[in-house]
Amino acid sequence: MRFKFSILALLLEVSIIVLFGIFAEYDNSIAIETLYPVFQDVHVMIFVGFGFLMTFLKKYGFSSVGINMLIAALGLQWGTLIQGFLHRKAGKIPVNIKSMINADFSTAAALISFGAVLGKTSPLQMLILTVVEVTIFAGNDYLVTEILQATDVGASMTIHAFGAYFGLVVTLVLYRPGLKNKHENEESTYHSDIFAMIGTLFLWLFWPSFNSAIASEPISQFKAIVNTYYSLAACTVATFALSSLVDRRGKFSMVLIQNATLAGGVAVGTCADMPIHPFVAMCIGSMAGIVSVLGYHFLTPFLASKLNIQDTCGVHNLHGLPGILGGIAGIIVTAVKDEAR
Amino acid sequence: MRFKFSILALLLEVSIIVLFGIFAEYDNSIAIETLYPVFQDVHVMIFVGFGFLMTFLKKYGFSSVGINMLIAALGLQWGTLIQGFLHRKAGKIPVNIKSMINADFSTAAALISFGAVLGKTSPLQMLILTVVEVTIFAGNDYLVTEILQATDVGASMTIHAFGAYFGLVVTLVLYRPGLKNKHENEESTYHSDIFAMIGTLFLWLFWPSFNSAIASEPISQFKAIVNTYYSLAACTVATFALSSLVDRRGKFSMVLIQNATLAGGVAVGTCADMPIHPFVAMCIGSMAGIVSVLGYHFLTPFLASKLNIQDTCGVHNLHGLPGILGGIAGIIVTAVKDEAR
Amino acid sequence: MRFKFSILALLLEVSIIVLFGIFAEYDNSIAIETLYPVFQDVHVMIFVGFGFLMTFLKKYGFSSVGINMLIAALGLQWGTLIQGFLHRKAGKIPVNIKSMINADFSTAAALISFGAVLGKTSPLQMLILTVVEVTIFAGNDYLVTEILQATDVGASMTIHAFGAYFGLVVTLVLYRPGLKNKHENEESTYHSDIFAMIGTLFLWLFWPSFNSAIASEPISQFKAIVNTYYSLAACTVATFALSSLVDRRGKFSMVLIQNATLAGGVAVGTCADMPIHPFVAMCIGSMAGIVSVLGYHFLTPFLASKLNIQDTCGVHNLHGLPGILGGIAGIIVTAVKDEAR
């Protein structure tokens, strides 16, 4: 019984190596100079950002960082294969810095879902969830960008909203009445809150790289960097203001500072590479911060008590609602642009 | 009463967005390849470096990282506007990676002042201080670099000394006799000291980027990187030596390792991009480490007890004295160079 | 007596500055664009990676980060000199970004040895050890790469195996029977384990830069990045699987997750820049993870109890065995390549 995890993990790894042996090939057609620093920023977000963001729960600090690492390490290999099959050239999977960025991206959705189910799943279940979700993500991403030719450069919808709602469904499926009593594990301590800020800050700082990494041209990349930078800054000021406003004593809530400050990066994702002007990015960021704070304050307790949806890290408010907001913003911006033509 | 902070923060954010809408414009005339990684290093210093450096105080860990984030997020938006007005082109504020680096820079002075007043100010006061200080900084910086045509590439004087003495004046103004009894909050614990090392190390590692970010040419940028690297290394060895020397039992003092090791980056700032030879950079770095250790050991207790200047994080010894040392070094180097001509 | 450390440190620093004054010269013949971001990654690994990796011991958290910083700051200056003498041009030591990367590299061996002797040596002894080991490393590195013309791009042998076995010899020399009773200091706590994960993750994330930093051409650099990325991912999955397998209750061991996940970066080092195909890199990574877990589980207790080799951080399993594995892999790959010709 206790060998199940080890056996499945080793079987998966052996299968992946065999598939890499048959299909994967170095593809050095893309120069590394520009993309490699951006890849490293995304890489830090996936492992340090997502990993430490979840350490705020006093009992799950080590599993959040550790299992996060396992999911991401497995997911990036599996993601390379699945995305490679969908975009293969002459039957081969080309491996380059861009495919490595996409491999890291494909783990993000699984890591967001992990945030919803943290403390309720075993490592064995997480292995299966990772493989399933990375596969669905790659198919969905292919559908949106290749078949529908839609644009979602920062992946507000395809990563953030998708990962959040996938996680919420899983947490509903895994619901057991007894879990409600485990409530005391879902608390933070002074030090665990500072650990979580490591995750928050590295996500916040490198989000401009996340939203610009797969932009097609330097000019779009530049706009995605600028828009995300100012969206996050505006979101942070709005989050502090709202956090103090909804608190009875006017104090800042740590969980809001850790999470809602990032909503601006999620929400500006879809239209980040469009020429929307920095002030529109700041409007989107401020609104995302406000929506996220209100979600944590009013919606999460409601979902938990009425619908039995227990969202451990509140991914619905950080990735779900801001992701949808980003999708709506993208539709409006595209419509306005078409109108102007 | 308790809504004051929220109302002011939201008012400021709305005003900034309106001003961005009227004046700001994308400026993609500068290529992002070279500057963007340097910008990211500076960005990490501002949010992770300054934020975590102040976590060593056991009671202020969360406020130091959290309020640091608020100040920086507000300050970079305000700094973009004020600096943009001073350097505007055809009535518009150009937004590019270089202006983002300068926006981050303009928050640094406010964050240094925050280190002096940590634990003595409310978030509301910090909002006002940030807006005031970023404005004065931008005016001062314009005066020094545009009107006087002086050079201060690493901003020893314009950021570090300015921020430190601004903070000391504020702490003198805010002085209340009762604060002396709050002494026990100004202590560190084992874990808070390790958290602070996260801040120290990210500042130390990325300081070559800080001092070279706005250098005019690749050759100056290269010299600024080399000089800062060796200045910091020499400063670190000198700090460890002096720290053991001034301790009765020969032990290292954590607060010195966390702070004085960085003085070499401050002091070499003004002349970092000049061809001063690495060994001169190392002399400046060693002297800065020694001055900083002596400042913490002898000057800070004196200022606190005799002049009622309570410098919570000791910014006078990290930014004030080494900043002045950097200014003097810059004057000497320039004089020698003019002599040689 | 208590001034010994300070006097030696200051003497060393003064000597280094004098030697820099006589011999060192700026060399701006190498463009900074491509190499500087890679240098920064390596820089983070040396100071944050190695420093925090050792914080898992509850009593040595501060000395590991602090003394790590001292050793690295001294070692990189000394390494610049010694490596510069061996590669000097017209009697001068050229200082550029590449020599700075090599200076950082030369401290890595000393830091690995420090991991073996942590808690058993004084700062004074570490100063001497650093100077001695950096000198031997530079000579050995010169012998391997210049005289023997062998290739070891990721330095599996010249840094990792060398540093580990050097440290083990020192720990044997320093062995005192009483040290066995100090066992309780060699424990981790909940928070110290999370601090150590900061070190693990920054080493893991930036290892592709470490293994590709001194690769001769962009194409070799690209291969080193890809191979290291997939080797580490495979190593991580294998480590989690093995860690659960060797535990009686099937739980993950924190010390294994912190260390053995990195063995894939060590082992793929020697042949990282060769066209070995990603799947071979993944095989090397998985094997390294398995070897490292088995080393921690079976070999370390044996060495400690039977041979009195007390390896505080288990560097033998992270750097020693995987380093040898990397050397063997390099020999096999070279032999196969020569065969194919």
TrEMBL record, chains A, B, C:
Catalytically driven reaction(s): methylamine(out) = methylamine(in); NH4(+)(in) = NH4(+)(out); CO2(out) = CO2(in)
Record membrane topology: Multi-pass membrane protein
GO biological process, one term: ammonium homeostasis
Main location as per UniProt: membrane
Keyword Transit peptide part of the UniProt annotation: no
Record key words, sorted: Ammonia transport, Glycoprotein, Membrane, Transmembrane, Transmembrane helix, Transport
Localization per record: Membrane
CC per GO annotation: plasma membrane
Gene3D superfamilies per UniProt: Ammonium transporter AmtB like domains
Residues annotated as transmembrane: 6-26, 38-57, 69-87, 99-118, 124-143, 155-174, 194-214, 226-246, 279-299, 319-336
Family to which the UniProt record says this protein belongs: Belongs to the ammonium transporter (TC 2.A.49) family. Rh subfamily.
Assembly behavior: Homodimer. Heterotrimer; a RHCE monomer interacts with a RHAG homodimer. Component of the ankyrin-1 complex in the erythrocyte, composed of ANK1, RHCE, RHAG, SLC4A1, EPB42, GYPA, GYPB and AQP1. Interacts with GYPB (via the N-terminal); this interaction bridges the (RHAG)2(RHCE) heterotrimer with the SLC4A1 Band 3 I dimer complexed with GYPA.
Protein name: Ammonium transporter Rh type A
